[in-house]
Design a protein that fits this description.
The chain is an alpha/beta fold. The chain contains ten helices and ten strands. It has helices spanning about 1-20, 25-40, 45, 50-55, 65-75, 95-100, 135-145, 160-165, 180-190, 200; strands at about 75-80, 85-90, 110, 115, 120-125, 150-155, 170, 190-195, 210, 215-220. The strands form two sheets. An eight-stranded mixed β-sheet has the order 3-10-9-5-6-7-8-4. The protein has a two-stranded antiparallel sheet with strand order 1-2.
């Protein structure tokens, strides 16, 4: 009962976060539209502004074009000895690489944690990107999914519920026994392996995999053919 209450609370909070930040008509989107009109800065560029940069607009200070161009490539913000820093462009790539996971491209065996089920099944992979900035893309990928496919995602959320209901099994990069994927898989009665680290980046649409929830293992047994689209 506690898990169900927690899952319901997470769904409510996720819906609020989507409404506030990610949906096309979100509060943040409306705010950026107004700021864009008021200060003649495109909403695209406002997405590269930091909070302090937006506040500085009211003092007539704009982020320089060369800095915006660098931030388009990459940028990170961090605090060191209580001082905030921002690095952009190639200067921050080394920092970003330090946080990237190393993925072996030909990796065919993934280990994770069994969240539900004690069985071995095979099926075709469907990778769903969890892109909260583009719900149209998410929905389009869910439409491509066929009943009985193996849902593979970085993590699941209420937005992927239709995909979960289509799935014969769920595999995620992240999560634990209290994650959305774990709770949903138990409700739907389907196998689930979480915390594989790299499944959504190693596996491709159409790959045939074996899900072994007795050992918490995902094994790719057939690569997608290059002729498939």
């Amino acid at each position: 009962a506690n898990l169900r209450d927690l899952a319901a609370f997470k769904d409510v909070m996720r819906a609020f976060i989507n409404k506030a930040f990610f949906e096309p008509a979100s509060y943040l989107s409306s705010l950026f539209d107004k700021l864009s009109t008021q200060f003649s800065v495109s909403t695209k560029n406002l997405n590269r502004y930091l909070q302090k940069d937006i506040l500085a607009l009211y003092d007539g200070a704009y982020v320089a074009d060369d800095e915006l161009s660098a931030r388009t490539h990459a940028f990170v913000t961090f605090t060191y000895e209580d001082r905030p820093f921002t690095l952009s462009g190639t200067d921050c790539l080394e920092i970003i690489r330090d946080f990237e996971d190393i993925i072996i491209p030909d990796q065919n065996l993934l280990k994770g944690q069994t969240a539900n089920g004690k069985s071995i099944i095979q099926g075709k992979v469907k990778v769903i990107p969890v892109d909260y900035s583009d719900f149209n893309r998410v929905n389009a990928e869910i439409e491509k999914m066929e009943p009985g496919d193996i849902l593979v995602a970085e993590t699941t959320a209420p937005e992927l519920m239709l995909a979960c209901k289509k799935a014969a099994a769920i595999v995620t990069d992240l999560g634990g026994l209290l994650s959305h994927a774990a709770i949903v898989s138990r409700e739907l009665g389907i196998p689930c392996i979480v915390n594989t680290k790299h499944a959504s980046r190693v596996l491709k649409d159409g790959d045939i995999v074996e899900i072994d929830t007795t050992r918490g293992v995902v094994r790719r047994i057939e690569l997608i053919k290059n002729t498939l689209k």
